[in-house]
Amino acid sequence: MSLTIEEILALPGLQGMSLRAGARNLQRNVRWSYVAENEGIAEWVMGGELVFVTGINHPRDEANLMRLVADGNASGIAGLVILTGGTFIQRIPDTVVALAEQCGLPLIEQPYLLKMVIVTHLIGTALVQMAQVKRSRHDILAQLLSGDYPSLATARQRAAHLQLPLDGPRHLVALRLSAVGTLFVNHAPEEAERVLQHTRQAVQDHLDIWNRGLHDALPVIVQGDLFILLLAERQAIRAELSILYQGLQAVTGDMPLFMGLATKVEDCANYRQALNEARQALEVAESLRPDTGLCDFSELGVLRLLQAIGDRSVIDRFVRQTLGRMIESRRKHPNSLIETLDALLQENGNALKTAQRLNVHRNTINQRIQRIEHHSGQSLDDPLFRMNASVALLVWRMTEAQRQDRT
């Protein structure tokens, strides 16, 4: 586990520290502590720091503290600690508290009488201890993901000692920020690196917080440019990942992020295979750029063929030609024919099962079949049309049209 703001505030000996703002982000990870000695902090932090402000070496008036909050928020620090009392900072202005709350930046007040040497020692010791546990847990998972471990029995024994729940089926998801090359083309190297590291830290923090709320969660693994999730079996995995993706879009800014989902694995011995599947799905997602950001390995067969088409407009044109005439824009539900066609194909043309799947009357399905064949000029008995429609629907499910329909 990582050490969070909440865990730091709960450390024995730090009861005198009090949270003044940013309670909704107490799960932010703290990488290390940093005492700010300069007027500003933007040039001196890279994200994830718990920044301490004493006022000893630089005057800290209201305007300066407001700037520190703004700079800290923009730089992705974990939290800001302001020492009050004594002859330096007497109190934290209400405007500073309000700005920190607005930004969601954890703002902590520390009495000046609580010595910095004690605070930094307690936090540093806890960080080292937690880092050791985290390193061991990540080491086990990294070995299982690479397939390079002494024995499965040893890996399981270590996992049990470190309380890693390896038993049970898992879904592996690989995530990656895209367009990194474009970032360095459009910005100076220093600025591009700062944006990249800040965004990566924001993504990891978001994943860590999201992951902690799950049952039998394993740590988020960072392997090269990949973020790897190992999720306990869940029925609504794609719906949950869709919600996760929407949340991640708020922190990635102009850098797109994509996800690859592997088929379910029953045992930790198969994590390496799952990672390979997720990588393949991720490559297709980056190529086809689905609206949901996700590609499922189970759908990869046809999608890999589509990925080989260099001109995306060819795929879009094929979808429009196959399905476009079935979109009835003047009706209350313009995509009802496409949804019916999709259900029919999934039920192998069985109209009764299709009606049950869509929760409509059998006669309604028959009427929609007639409209489908009328608009498309094709017969559902034609195997070529069914094949083309299946491919077009696979792409359609990953496009803006589906998102607009859900909205």
UniProtKB/TrEMBL annotation:
Domain Purine catabolism PurC-like: 7-126
Domain named PucR C-terminal helix-turn-helix: residues: 337-394
Entry superkingdom: Bacteria
Pfam families recorded: GGDEF_2 (PF17853), HTH_30 (PF13556), PucR (PF07905)
Domain CdaR GGDEF-like: 151-284
Family, per entry: Belongs to the CdaR family.
Protein name: Fis family transcriptional regulator
